[in-house]
């Protein structure tokens, strides 16, 4: 039963990864925020200035720089495409699901962990966040990691 539940967790993670990446490059950047992030990241790569993000040559300090670095690194590897701009969001969301799966498997058993990540991974907001080049997925990954670290500290202190 344990192996079967663990296999279900792996299948949910794999299915989520496929869902988040499939078609990510076929749709142009349609949200205005996506265009701002992608263009700023593209200009970061083109100018070589990895310190000050710029949108149409004006400094853009609207969000922390990590998202620009992630997207710019992706664009440096894969070219300045919509897919490259969206890769960090998809990777971060898959990472969040992996974190949840690992921690929940230890904390509440594999079957509950599998159902939890299935519900989380298939929710509309999570899918949309994973498929758009916004800050949400990357921020969620780091917030989830921090919350799970605090949970671990709490469990080990009792």
How would you summarize the topology of this molecule?
Blueprint (H helix, E strand, L loop, with lengths): L1 H20 L10 H16 L6 E2 L2 E2 L6 H13 L3 H27 L1 H12 L2 H7 L5 H22 L1
Antiparallel strand pairs: 1-2
Helix pairs in contact: 1-4, 1-5, 2-3, 3-4, 4-5, 4-7
Would you give an account of this structure?
- The chain is mainly α and 158 residues long.
- It has one domain.
- Helices cover 74% and strands 3% of the residues.
- It is built from 7 helices and 2 strands.
- The model has no long low-confidence stretch (mean pLDDT 91).
Task: Write a brief caption for the model.
The chain has 158 residues and is an all-alpha fold. The protein is 74% helix and 3% strand. The longest helix has 27 residues.
Mean pLDDT: 91
Instruction: Tell me the strand percentage band.
Output: under 5%
Termini separation (Å)? 29 Å
Largest sheet: 2 strands, antiparallel
Fraction of helical residues: over 70%
Q: How many DSSP H or I helices?
A: 7
Radius of gyration: 17 Å
SS-derived structural category: mainly alpha
Please trace the helix and strand order, writing H or E for each element: HHEEHHHHH
Low-confidence stretches: none
Number of domains: 1
Strand arrangement in the largest pleated sheet: 1-2
Task: Report the principal-axis shape.
Answer: globular
Oligomer: single chain
Number of strands: 2
């Amino acid at each position: 039963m344990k192996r079967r539940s663990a296999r279900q967790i792996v299948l949910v993670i794999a299915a989520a990864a496929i869902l988040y990446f499939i078609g990510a490059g076929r749709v142009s950047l349609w949200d205005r925020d996506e265009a701002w992030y992608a263009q700023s990241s593209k200009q970061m790569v083109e100018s070589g200035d990895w310190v000050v993000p710029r949108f149409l040559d004006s400094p853009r300090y609207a969000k922390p720089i990590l998202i620009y670095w992630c997207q710019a690194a992706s664009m440096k590897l894969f070219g300045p495409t919509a897919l490259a701009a969206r890769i960090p969001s998809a990777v971060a969301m898959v990472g969040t699901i992996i974190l949840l799966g690992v921690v929940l498997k230890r904390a509440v058993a594999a079957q509950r962990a599998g159902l939890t990540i299935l519900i989380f991974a298939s929710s509309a907001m999570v899918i949309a966040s994973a498929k758009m080049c916004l800050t949400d997925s990357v921020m969620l990954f780091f917030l989830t990691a921090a919350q799970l670290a605090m949970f671990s500290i709490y469990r080990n202190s009792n």
